[in-house]
């Protein structure tokens, strides 16, 4: 059987065994509707509230400030639509996930104005650009904490200060930052922050929106009074329990220094690849990054061909955001950083998870240089260069 190594954890992470064990009873004996007043309902209600406490501890907030949703996309949409109305002005960046960018496009169709601040060559937003973009009718700033493609971390504390001074809401898409770097919503001074279960070793289809106490949030859905009327709909109890467990494991991981071990593994992968492959480099080099991600360009190859070639050998990586894989356009993140289109197309994202080991990295360090060499053999430009020099 082919050995399979998964280095695409920014697309989704495997559910950890302890997380699966925690959620399993809520598919069976603990099946109650958390809104029911009888024993079965009380049992699941208690489990939901325990999970809420765990997620609140992970984010440094109070439990009632946690709203459970169906994932990062819903959390982002709830924050963006829920904190704005027609005629408002919103500030975001050009490298956000489509769950933010397309939500903002919809706001524009509804009569809002949106400013998309640029990023520099390392994919960093300049907080002065955010300050300069403020207008009298600015209602919301939405900037991601960590980019899903490069892993680069934005200066959210600086932006939080700008938002606070201007009395503007600040929403953070922290889907790719949660459980990778410590988050303290009070220190950042944000009003809303999104996380997603499946990026932190809980299952797909559950997420959280932190909403600062006293923030007036318009719901997306109308129905029952679930989640203090901020998100109607019967709670996904197994998913919520799993997310609570994943949050606990993330906190324990920080205490044990697992984030440092992960960045050491990531660095070993990155250094090992760059030592063996010429005409390659790191996108976002020099910027602060989450510990699990590196995005590397390999000139003279097609990223999609590289993903397929590596997959055939048992290594799963990605060319960028999973939802745009297969699309003809190069990544909007990499082009916003100023990468040439061919270099953006030649870029591969490697993203580690808690399950990855040093052996996995060694496996990748054999396969990646081989795949690049094979693909460059087929590249007419690279062949011509080889003859010329
Ligand atoms: C930065 C970022 N925001 C939002 C999302 C959407 O999260 P979900 O898949 O839970 O809807 C993703 C998923 O890739 C992401 O990477």
Keywords:
389 residues; Aspartate Aminotransferase, domain 1; alpha/beta; three-stranded antiparallel beta sheet; 42% helix; binds pyridoxal-5'-phosphate; 15 helices
What does this structure look like?
With 389 residues, the chain is of the alpha/beta class. It has two domains: 141 residues, Aspartate Aminotransferase, domain 1; 238 residues, 3-Layer(aba) Sandwich (Aspartate Aminotransferase, domain 2), CATH 3.40.640. It is 42% helix and 14% strand. It is built from 15 helices and twelve strands. It starts with a strand and ends with a helix. The model has no long low-confidence stretch (mean pLDDT 95). The structure holds pyridoxal-5'-phosphate (PLP).
What is the strand and helix layout of this fold?
Blueprint lengths: L4 E2 L10 H7 L15 H21 L6 E4 L2 H11 L6 E5 L4 H12 L3 E5 L9 H7 L4 E7 L11 H11 L2 E5 L11 H4 L3 E5 L10 E5 L14 H4 L7 H19 L2 H19 L3 E3 L10 E6 L4 H11 L1 E2 L15 H5 L4 H5 L1 E5 L6 H20 L2 H9 L1
Parallel strand pairs: 1-11, 3-4, 3-5, 5-6, 6-7
Antiparallel strand pairs: 2-8, 7-8, 9-10, 10-12
The chain binds pyridoxal-5'-phosphate.
